[in-house]
TrEMBL record:
<dbReference type="InterPro" id="IPR011256">
    <property type="entry name" value="Reg_factor_effector_dom_sf"/>
</dbReference>
<dbReference type="InterPro" id="IPR006917">
    <property type="entry name" value="SOUL_heme-bd"/>
</dbReference>
<protein>
    <submittedName>
        <fullName>Heme-binding protein soul4</fullName>
    </submittedName>
</protein>
<dbReference type="Pfam" id="PF04832">
    <property type="entry name" value="SOUL"/>
</dbReference>
<dbReference type="GO" id="GO:0020037">
    <property type="term" value="F:heme binding"/>
</dbReference>
<comment type="similarity">
    <text>Belongs to the HEBP family.</text>
</comment>
Length: 283
């Protein structure tokens, strides 16, 4: 199933760490699957068979080191049914070096309420303020292909392929929007991936050189967030949606056709932190 979408300012409201359709039509997006090539994968290269002498160095890699790293990511790409183009060599090197010296900036938010049981946080409600985001919409044959190709585009944008010619810095979480199919159980194929611009670039966002990337300013939005750890497959996301609905009970002011998956850590981390987000109506 496929429904074409664009990250258009007239059609989307992107706040916090995701994009919400402002048009009557449903935005069709898919979810993150396990083992994808993403900004987080590349940021975690030190855990992905890369020697310490590469990741700890602030100096550019020599040709042999660069070839070895690129060959590694080609192998990773084949397992995800995507090709890692040669133009990714530079961004892979840049992100690997920067990951050792640069802090990852959190997307700003305000916690409105927290719901606990026996000392365990079941879920919390947050408001994400207005801000500027870079987003990419993809609808490839496989979920893995759409997410991987979208992230590679955003990575090139972060790693100097922008009007400033500068490395922009990493923010977390990177969030993907999923939209339910008409049957209410399966996910639509289209993928929309959003990267929050660091505070330094909020007032004057750099322009992407890639026409597939759109910079949009979005209003504030309110979400209900529940943390879960581990992989982000269709099965695990569906389970987390069911769990949060069970905790909330019936709630007419929460959307039931769109959800968000927020990713905070490198997929190489076995019990990495993720969140499922429900969207309050009227946000």
């Amino acid at each position: 199933m496929r429904s074409a979408t664009l990250c258009d300012p007239q059609r989307f409201k992107l706040c916090g760490a995701f994009v919400v359709s402002a048009a009557p039509q449903s935005l069709s997006v898919t979810l993150v699957r396990m083992a994808l090539i993403s900004i987080e994968d590349l940021a975690g290269l030190d855990d992905e068979q890369v020697d310490d002498d590469i990741t700890d160095s602030a100096e550019p890699m020599d040709e042999e080191e660069e070839d070895r790293m690129y060959a590694h990511w080609q192998a990773v790409g084949r397992t995800h049914h995507v090709s890692v183009p040669r133009e990714m060599r530079g961004p892979i090197q840049e992100m690997t070096r920067r990951n050792q010296t640069s802090e990852r900036e959190p997307v700003p938010s305000v916690t409105v309420s927290r719901h606990e049981k026996l000392g365990e946080v079941l879920y919390e409600e947050r408001v994400y303020p207005a801000g500027k985001w870079a987003c990419v919409s993809k609808a490839d044959t496989l979920y893995e292909q759409s997410i991987s190709n979208a992230f590679m585009k955003l990575m090139r944008f972060i790693c100097k392929e922008n009007s400033t010619g500068r490395y922009l810095g990493m923010t977390v979480p990177v969030v993907n929007e999923i939209t339910m199919a008409e049957d209410g159980t399966n996910f639509m194929k289209d993928v929309l991936t959003a990267y929050y611009l660091p505070a330094e670039f909020q007032a004057r966002p750099p322009e992407p050189t890639d026409p597939d990337i759109r910079i949009v300013h979005r209003d504030a939005i309110r979400v209900i967030a529940r943390v879960f750890n581990g992989t982000t497959t269709e099965e695990t996301i569906s389970r987390q949606i069911s769990i949060l609905w069970e905790l909330l009970g019936s709630s007419e002011d929460v959307l039931q056709d769109r959800y968000m998956v927020a990713v905070y850590e490198n997929p190489g981390v076995p019990q990495r932190r993720n969140e499922i987000w429900f969207i309050r109506r009227g946000s």
